[in-house]
Design brief:
six-stranded mixed beta sheet, about 30% strand, 20 strands, alpha+beta
Length: about 270
């Protein structure tokens, strides 16, 4: 029996003698099945040719697999009292990574922005004996159900220690944003709100790889959901996708630009 991992999106499935016939997350039009077809690995096989890079990302610590695997996102360790919250997740969890995280205070909880980054979240939860907080609207996308998964409902969940989960929606109905109140405040958005190359704006999409936009009403709802929050920085999903200052104004003008674009006013 193996816990197979989808090579395209990094999602881990429960114990089985054979890989699934397809990955539901990749078949969904917000992701994709590569032209080479569906392929599978395991966490142990992944560790044979990959490792995790762990380094400072602005004022947090990031974890990402190298060489790049699947979607290539990096997770973030967010101070959470005497321990850490793991924001988003990666498929590889090896002894070196676990030891490094333990040295930094371990994990008190895991929270993930949306199903594309669920990866091997249950492996992480079991290793650190902590819960996983996911929005209930995306419960159908949990490929490896486990008691560690706690589905929350509504528009926000106070985790304590200045950390709050916000339902951003957009990319997925339960798309989640983490607000960190410490300092001048920060949003950790995965790609629910996407940090784009020039850093002067952010993006909002229903499908990023397939370039399917969101309706303007949903974008304005997302912008309104974070407008009351105090934040100066935004952390996106990959290395270097950080807007270190003035991020609230960036979100505001990006939502305004989206409205103008949908009206044809940018043409």
């Amino acid at each position: 029996m193996e816990r197979f991992v989808c090579v395209a999106c990094g999602t881990q499935f429960p114990d089985a003698a054979h890989p699934p016939p397809a990955c539901p997350i990749c078949v969904d039009p917000r992701q994709y099945v590569p032209t080479t077809g569906q392929r599978w690995t395991t966490v142990a096989e992944l560790a044979d040719a990959h490792e995790n890079a762990i380094r400072v990302e602005h004022d947090l610590v990031g974890i990402a697999t190298t060489p790049v695997f699947a979607i290539g996102q990096r997770a973030l360790l967010v101070p959470f009292g005497a321990t850490n919250l793991l924001w988003d997740c990666v498929s590889l969890l090896d002894h070196a990574t676990a030891a490094d995280v333990e040295r930094r205070g371990g994990l008190g909880a895991i929270a993930i922005s949306h199903p594309h980054y669920y990866s091997s979240m249950v492996e992480w939860a079991h290793r650190f004996d902590c819960p996983i907080h996911l929005h209930a609207a995306d419960a159908a996308w949990v490929m490896r159900p486990d008691p560690a998964v706690r589905h929350w409902e509504g528009e926000r969940l106070e985790l304590g220690e200045g950390l709050t989960l916000i339902r951003g929606g957009g990319h997925f109905p339960g798309g989640t944003i983490l607000h960190r109140a410490a300092g001048s405040g920060a949003l950790l958005t995965g790609d629910i709100i996407q940090v784009i190359p020039d850093r002067t704006h952010v993006g909002f999409m229903w499908s990023y790889p397939n370039l399917v936009p969101l309706p303007d009403a949903e974008v304005q709802r997302m912008a309104a959901a974070v407008e009351p929050l105090a934040f100066d920085a935004i952390y996106g999903a990959w290395w270097g996708t950080v807007i270190p200052a003035d991020a609230k104004a960036v979100v505001r003008r990006s939502a305004e630009r989206h409205t103008r674009a949908t009206r044809g006013e940018l043409v």
